[in-house]
Amino acid sequence: MSERVHTFHATAFMESLSTRTLVAALLLLLVPVLFPRPARAAPPAPSAPMDRAAMAARVRAEFLHAWRGYEQYAWGHDELKPVSKTTHDWHRESLLMTPVDALDTLLLMGLDAEAAKAKELIVTRLSFDKDVSVKVFEITIRLLGGLLSSYQMTGDPRLLRLADDLGTRLLPAFGSPTGMPYQYINLKTGRTEGAFSNPAEIGTLLLEFGTLARLTHKPVFYDKAKNALAQVFKRRSKYGLVGEEIDVETGEWTSPLSHVSGGIDSYYEYLLKAARLFGDADCAKMWQESLRALDDCLADEAPSGLWYGTVDMTTGWRAGTEYGALDAFLPAVLALGGELERARRLQASCYKMWQLHGLEPEVLDYSTMQVESPGYRLRPEIIESAYYLYRFTKDPQYLEMGRTFFAAIVAHCRTDAGYTVLTKRQGDLMPSYFLAETLKYLYLLFAPDGTLDLGKVVFNTEAHPLRRTW
Q1: What pLDDT, in 10s, does the model give residues 393-423?
Q2: Could you tell me if 424 and 377 are in contact, meaning their C-beta atoms sit under 8 angstroms apart?
Q3: Catalytic residue among 101, 244, 265, 300
């Protein structure tokens, strides 16, 4: 709740008090002094001296286990179903989601033979000349981002040609009256659909399209994606907030709820990261204004810690106290933006969420600390935040967090053919992002400090490292 709300209620309350009520109220104020709350949970204590090289090797071995499961049971398909040892394709024809998403992780981990085999599959088999309708956001962050990062790491021009072809096929999506992209586009016909979109799917395109523009010298990619991002920002409320759903044809908000969870999350991430990768002053200003709005309106000091909840973008009133696995990206972005103290406090809350049941829930009500949506979907965000905080602070508690995360994932999600999401029912899917993000961030957390320089590399929201090679 905002400070303004607290002030209003306090004034009305005091004016209505009788002398007896005033005494009672004063006694209530003394309760925290007489009976202080228990101290906040301490950060994770080292259970044994940390051997980072050994931990990195263990993560690498588990990645190789997952990759070999994909090779054996799902080669050439989008994703592996590791329990049934079958395949999952997003569309009628595979777009090689897992190989493209995982290639730069293979390269980072020095798995050269596996990387060479994956790259050969991609450059010889991957084609975007398919009569399928794809989600612009997902295809951009996974495939376009993966192709660009792998091109920068290998120098293979065939990867850049594939990226250029894909970007060109996605451009008609920006043909709405507002310039904000439709959600879906047919890769062969260019037919678009899905006018009701959200800030994340509209605003999480500039890193990839901008990098493509720089590498191909085609500014149209940058201009279209940046305009889409700016169009969302232009429609912020008087509090500086955006909603969770918007009509890209009319520019009108269809849901005023504002939060940092799925549907909005990476919109904020890309404001900051585009400023860093491209030196874009407009994005830097949009980030700073958005950060103030988040801290003023969404940040919530609860007895359980610092969280970011849900408010109405038009009124600023608190509308919900949910926080979950997707929201856990925010400490990383805060740390990257220099807000280290706030990032530390929010990560402590995230870790408390993980510790409730030994695995992170999908959604938690932080006002009651009750899980609203159980199940762990192999998500990377909380690990990503531990990685950023360790890199910026060198505080060993974040290594210990990483060890806790890794041990739990191995204990609960490992199968003999890979790793699976856990849902209310038995899961049977190894999403490509598990190889692109979750295991990558775990590996980088423990790897030698110089493995990647965050001053020179900007990760897209799928953890594909992009470099200002231009």
Answers
A1: 999 999 999 999 999 999 999 999 999 999 8
A2: no
A3: 265
